[in-house]
């Protein structure tokens, strides 16, 4: 049986150390966080951790990888971070858009990391072009294209690159240029007002950064002195190591929330007894938080849980584990609705999640009913995209009977009581209900004898003008089949 060998990295290379001695050294080093060996161990652990995360990331699990990535000290290890990403992208160009999406998220919090990676990839591109290394050039060009799609790199680089490749065109340079425009032609068309066509700039599942949060680095191919800062890839002792690590812990908490510390501390179980004693003391003395810090942390926790879950079942399970105070259940519904409204297109994920909560607890059903009333009363404040998402969300809850249909009593369908925004909302709502249930089943719901009082507001029969407006409205939006009773009413007049 072959015995495993243990090595430790030093400035001049790697030295073999027997496992027993290595364990003793590690224990001694862990006792002194300021020691050189402890810092070297954390450096090696960071390198292995980054490589492991980069090697397993894909479009499906990227939202789960992001919190793990921010748990590492990306400021100290930004050189290793950039080297690992560039190396992995060269080995697997098919995952370039995934790597670029991950870099874009990190860039929003640590622009110096995104700027360093942009400089290095530009330098790699220029070296490959000078060496006529087509394989490396294609990979570098693809990475630049997707970094530009994610708005990490400025579009000026694209124009300079195309000018460089097509200044003295050859078969290889034209092939590289065509490949480049294919990857980023869509964003070039938006930013440079050209008629470039290509694949969509960013896949929906990799569109993780809001436009207002994007930080774009302006780097030119013409710059002669681009510093790759290769020294960051080499281990160096930090004089104030403990202080720097604590500073990054504070930064990490602002990004991931306070709950990130619970995941990072694997030794927390040994302090259970002390925690129980402190909990008893906290019960005796409760402090009122007037700054709403707890509320902000709760919303951050709910948001991160919703955005990092793979499907609605996982999200529902995690959200139910969050301990809510009696007056905090509404925050869960509000955050779910806000997350849904901020998506570029409606995702059924949110409707299924809202449906699950309504079915589990009557409190959530009542809260979503309150949200419906509040959203409809403020519908004029929503942008068109938000309005469409909210309408489809509530249509899903109504269509699955997760939300009681008497909420429609809050809608008065008359010319005086509706606005352009509310009419768009109602149009999408009833079109979705008609598509989900079918016009026959929708009629059965709306003409249920026990529900006629709540529905008088959407089928007004108090005067012919209101009835005629409702008939014309439903007919115009394609669901005129639900207006039979109103038509009979008009005939009787």
TrEMBL record:
Provide the residue span(s) of the region labelled Disordered. Answer: 258-291
Q: Does Transmembrane helix appear among the keywords?
A: no
Q: Where is the MI domain?
A: 297-413
What cellular component GO annotations does this protein have?
catalytic step 2 spliceosome
Q: Where in the cell is it found?
A: Nucleus
Any one Gene Ontology molecular-function term assigned to this protein's record: RNA binding
Taxonomy, superkingdom: Eukaryota
- Comp. bias (Acidic residues): 259-284
According to its UniProt entry, the protein's GO biological process terms are: mRNA splicing, via spliceosome; regulation of translation
Tell whether Transmembrane is among the UniProt keywords: no
Q: Write out the entry's keywords from A to Z.
A: mRNA processing, mRNA splicing, Nucleus, Translation regulation
Similarity-based family: Belongs to the CWC22 family.
Record protein name field: MI domain-containing protein
Q: Which organism is it from?
A: Rhododendron griersonianum
């Amino acid at each position: 049986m072959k015995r495993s060998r243990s090595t430790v990295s030093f400035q001049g290379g790697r030295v073999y150390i027997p496992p027993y001695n290595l364990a003793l050294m590690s224990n001694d080093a862990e006792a002194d966080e300021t020691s050189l060996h402890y810092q070297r161990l954390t450096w090696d652990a960071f390198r292995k951790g980054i490589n492991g995360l980069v090697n397993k990331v894909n479009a499906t699990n990227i939202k789960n990888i992001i919190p793990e990535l921010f748990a590492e000290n990306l400021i100290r290890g930004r050189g290793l971070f950039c080297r690992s990403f560039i190396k992995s992208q060269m080995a697997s160009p098919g995952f370039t858009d995934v790597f670029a999406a991950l870099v874009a998220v990190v860039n929003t919090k640590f622009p110096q990391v995104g700027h360093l990676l942009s400089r290095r990839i530009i330098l790699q591109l220029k070296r490959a072009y000078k060496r006529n290394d087509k394989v490396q050039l294609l990979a570098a060009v693809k990475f630049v294209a997707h970094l530009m799609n994610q708005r990490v790199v400025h579009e000026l680089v694209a124009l300079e690159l195309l000018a460089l490749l097509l200044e003295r065109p050859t078969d290889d340079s034209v092939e590289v240029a065509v490949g480049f425009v294919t990857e980023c032609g869509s964003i070039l068309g938006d930013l440079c007002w050209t008629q470039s066509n290509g694949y969509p700039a960013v896949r929906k599942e990799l569109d993780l950064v809001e436009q207002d949060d994007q930080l774009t680095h302006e780097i030119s191919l013409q710059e002669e002195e681009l510093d790759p800062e290769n020294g960051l890839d080499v281990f160096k002792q930090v004089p104030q190591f403990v202080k720097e690590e604590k500073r990054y812990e504070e930064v990490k908490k602002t990004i991931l929330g306070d709950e990130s510390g619970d995941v990072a501390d694997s030794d927390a179980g040994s302090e259970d007894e002390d925690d129980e004693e402190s909990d008893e003391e906290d019960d005796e003395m409760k402090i009122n938080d007037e700054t709403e810090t707890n509320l902000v942390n709760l919303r951050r926790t709910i948001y991160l849980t919703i955005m990092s879950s793979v499907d609605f079942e996982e999200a529902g399970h995690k959200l139910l584990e969050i301990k809510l105070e009696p007056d905090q259940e509404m925050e869960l519904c509000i955050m779910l609705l806000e997350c849904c409204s901020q998506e570029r297109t409606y995702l059924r994920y949110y409707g299924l999640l809202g449906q699950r909560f309504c079915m589990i607890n009557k409190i959530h059903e009542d809260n979503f009913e309150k949200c419906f009333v509040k959203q409809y009363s403020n519908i004029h404040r929503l942008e068109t995209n938000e309005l469409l998402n909210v309408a489809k969300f509530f249509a899903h809850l109504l269509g699955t009977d997760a939300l009681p249909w008497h909420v429609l009593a809050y809608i008065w369908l008359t010319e005086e009581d509706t606005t352009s925004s509310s009419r768009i909302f109602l149009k999408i709502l009833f079109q979705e209900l008609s598509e989900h249930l079918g016009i026959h089943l929708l009629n059965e719901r709306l003409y249920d004898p026990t529900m006629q009082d709540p529905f008088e507001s959407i089928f007004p029969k108090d005067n012919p003008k209101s009835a005629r407006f409702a008939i014309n409205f439903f007919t115009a939006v394609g669901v005129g089949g639900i207006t039979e009773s109103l038509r009979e009413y008009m005939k009787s007049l």
